[in-house]
Design a protein that fits this description.
The protein has about 220 residues and is mostly helical. Helix content is about 50%, strand content about 5%. The longest helix is centred in the middle third of the chain and has 25 residues. The chain binds flavin-adenine dinucleotide.
């Protein structure tokens, strides 16, 4: 199911112990078909498989040693629910107290930014921009490897958070202001700032804030 939902990427390794189900021809054929490498660690070395063992241990504590299930289907559902919890919500000290999904999202963000730096460098290295550029200031010419770019992104990237939408404009029950910017239920209180935006606009929001202010100014002047 994981392969169907997520697809596999080159270099993917499946860590397991040496139990018969993992050694079986069927299982190994399936791994091969998806291009996944099997790792069963080495004798006396538990480290390769340590994280997977930790997951099994916690799954057993949560699902196996606790409730008794009336049907196989119930047990299956409990395992699926727990895996969803484990992936989305459970915090891992080994991941800096993030859930696996949060950790992966951050990793994807970093990889996207590394790609963006490479694209920018390619663009800037071509005419006509190349003739105008003297030096690369950041990350700098010494940052040539992916590892160096990852370090740079982690150290320097920032979020651009545009607070908006806390007093959403609309016609429905939950809207705070009406389309003429009046606070619903009150006669003479109006709001004209980024908080009335029903959704965050796709560009930066300063110009839109000024237009909202202009609109209310004109409206009140009549
Ligand atoms: C660092 C930074 C860079 C940005 N760069 C850009 C950019 O390049 N381009 C762009 O389009 N947008 C940019 N933005 C976003 C944009 O400037 C703001 O989103 C926009 O100004 C929000 O307007 P606003 O009227 O909703 O709120 P604000 O501009 O924050 O106005 C709120 C006002 O209410 C006042 N106030 C707060 N509490 C009270 C109170 N109790 N009584 C009376 N007055 C009060 C505050 O002093 C303030 O003057 C940037 C924002 C930041 C922080």
């Amino acid at each position: 199911m994981a392969c169907f939902r997520r697809r596999t990427a080159a270099g993917l390794i499946f860590h397991s112990d040496r139990a018969t189900q993992y050694c079986s021809q069927d299982f190994q054929d399936t791994l091969l078909a998806w291009g996944i490498r099997s790792s069963m660690s080495r004798e006396g070395n538990c480290w390769d498989n340590a994280l997977t063992e930790s997951l099994w241990g916690r799954l057993k504590t949560a699902c196996d040693h606790g409730p008794r299930y009336a049907t196989r289907e119930q047990a299956k559902q409990a395992v699926m629910d727990w895996i969803a919890f484990y992936n989305h919500s459970r915090l891992h000290s080994a991941l800096g107290y993030l859930s696996p999904m949060q950790f992966e999202q951050r990793w994807t963000d970093v990889q996207t930014l590394v790609k963006a730096i490479k694209v920018l460098r390619r663009i800037v290295s071509q005419s006509p921009l190349a003739d105008m550029v003297m030096d690369e200031v950041e990350p700098g010419p010494h940052a040539t490897t992916d590892a160096a770019l990852v370090e740079y992104v982690k150290a320097r990237a920032e979020l651009g958070y545009h607070a908006s939408g806390t007093c959403r404009m609309g016609l429905d029950e939950k809207a705070v202001v009406t389309p003429d910017l009046r606070v619903r239920g009150l006669e003479n209180l109006y709001i004209a700032d980024a908080s009335v935006m029903p959704e965050l606009i796709s560009g930066n929001i300063n110009a839109a804030c000024m237009m909202i202010g202009e609109k209310l100014g004109r409206q009140l002047r009549g």
